[in-house]
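Hey,
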Amino acid sequence: MKYRIKEPFCDAVELRIMQQLLQIAESEFHIIPKLDLSIIVEPDINQWERNSGWQGGVDKLHQKRLDFVMFDKQWTLFCVIGLVNYDKGLLLDVETKSILESVSIPLLVLERNKQYTIEQLVEKITNLCS
């Protein structure tokens, strides 16, 4: 099987939001785009126990993509940012939202077709944590 690089890595909307988030983050936060949920969450069961369902849980997490993940400067998880387009019916996966809630990870939902100012993003991020 042959492979090729997927281009572009970020579409125009993702790139615009990423650049804004980087301006906000400066040296206080790290912003990582397009992570599998399995990078930040794992099943809370013994993976070595026979028939525990651990591998199935991990496989499910691998299928879930996060638009952006924000960490503080010590790489402690701060929040997840998800992009939606209500006009096209592109919503956040219900199961992903449920998993994030179950482990108390804050979720900030942004609309893809809305132009946010830096100030609006700062306010949304600040409100998410208060």
